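Budget justification note: compute hours in this period were largely spent on complex prediction jobs such as the one shown. Inputs:
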Amino acid sequence: MQQTAKTLMVCLFIAALMGSVACSKKNPPPAAYDTNAGQEMEEADLGAGEFRSPAEIDPALAAIFQNILFGFDQYSLTPQARAILDGIGAWMKNNPAKLVLIEGHTDERGTYEYNLALGDRRANSAKTYLTQLGIDAARIYTISYGEERPVAMGSNEAAWAKNRRGEFKIK
Amino acid sequence: MHTPLPQRRVLRMHMRCAAVFITACLIVSHPGTSACAKVYIDINAPSATRVPIIIPPFQNTGSEPDTHKLSTGMASIISADLEFSGLFQIIDPKLLNEAHLRGVTRNEINWDSLSVVGAEAIVTGVFAISGNRINIEMRLFDAVQGRFIMGKKYSGTVPEYRRISHRFANEVFKELTGAPGMFETGIVFVMQTGGNKELYYCDYDGGNQRRLTTLNSLALSPCVSPDGSRVAFTSYRDGNPDLYVMNLAGGRIEKISSKKGINISPDFSPDGGKIALTLSPKDGNSEIFALDVQRRTLERITDHRATDVSPSWSPDGRQMAFVSSRSGNPQIFINTLADRSVRRVTFGRGNYNTSPAWSPRGDRIAYAGLIDGRFNIHTIAPDGSRYRQLTAGQGNNEDPSWSPDGRYITFSSNRTGRKEIYIMRADGTGQKKITVGSGDKTDPAWAPLPGN
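Corresponding output:
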């Protein structure tokens, strides 16, 4: 008898639970997913004129605008990357008319779609750091090439390490 | 109106009177008798018996010589199509005395010799060349009963012989299985050309390879609309990775998304009206959106600080598989569009699973997964059950894309040292390379036949 009562209680509880689930399904989707989300988004604009590699402009610049390197599937900045970005930030403060393009790259491993997203993250990590140094975000452009533009050929860790990088262009 | 005939072997026979006309004429061998007979193979049986079929070289009955070797060319295309389906066993015509191979019609075929080599069906063909034109007649017979099943007359230009052969293979497949064949479909893929990447197209078996784009830039991630008419893809033509749509027939290219950041990994909705894609609206944080192709409005699908990329619609359009790093590394997730609830699909098998492709049948998701340092193609049911590895031990295998009927998968592999496009059956058997020529070839997208 006691067992039956328990079972009944459990059944009622489950029924109540199912009722509440059924009700919650009727609610509209969360407002965060509004259909106008895209209207706030900026159109792509790399500006007029061509970004050039620092070494092409002046060999001395190549020492400042070194590639910053990342770990596998990582977009956080290493201490070495921060040190390079500190130098780039100082140069940008001294050259306020100059614009910088940060290219995000990955190694060949993984899907190129995921790598395009990862390269975008890497470029934006560097951009965020530069803005935190006080550089106007409008002077910093980003683009991701994913795994499409390797600097080192070969399928080994030495090549992969060089290819997981942020690369800088100036105009 | 099904009138079962006496069962004489593993194949069941039905009567069926729905003749299919395309551009061809139907050949009626015995008017009023068995022109509509149909053999039936249960293609969904787990271990369906392969039907032994023989396709002798076609007979040139015209006055002009067969300089393009169409005689063996057409027979071998049809043989390869049927063999690849996994439902037919191709019997080598060389097993027969050449004199026994010349029969084309019911009265000419040497039925006894076919029974010796175990053929249960035979395709015969005759053709005549006249300049750049070709006339072809092809027939399918039940070799056990010596019965005419179906025949077609085709007329076209000589270079169309591949297409005509695929079309007749579709007819044979449909007659013997009841399901439409997909031997006239194609595959869009990316090929490295110098420092650039351009889109290319080929027949599903690699024939008729041709270039689609000359944007002198990086073209990536092609995806073909369900009606086979359009290709969506990413190009750096204007500097940024923007999204474009191109007509497959006319080649007209239109830019449809150029948001700041990435505009990548398109996937057409099952009704063709929307394209799911990946954008990075803020700080490089990629999210999945659905773009209404006509109205150009965007609907946000995911909202998470982790990387979300590579959407693939379920065939009913109610869910979307995608890649997310929200659990720490890339895994396959499913978003239920009605309430945006998200559940993880891949667990415990590798920490890098990407490129989901939802089967047109709905019951499986193919993806590329990294295990022991190699990428391979796997499938899993949407509820995470029925995991299966389809490729193994041969290089890296990535970018799976389903055929429109869900029976086959195309993918890229570097197993020969260079990245090439491959096709296989959905169970991983029958893997074969279809592309030729230098340049890495990647990211194949199976293209339905336009108009189907």
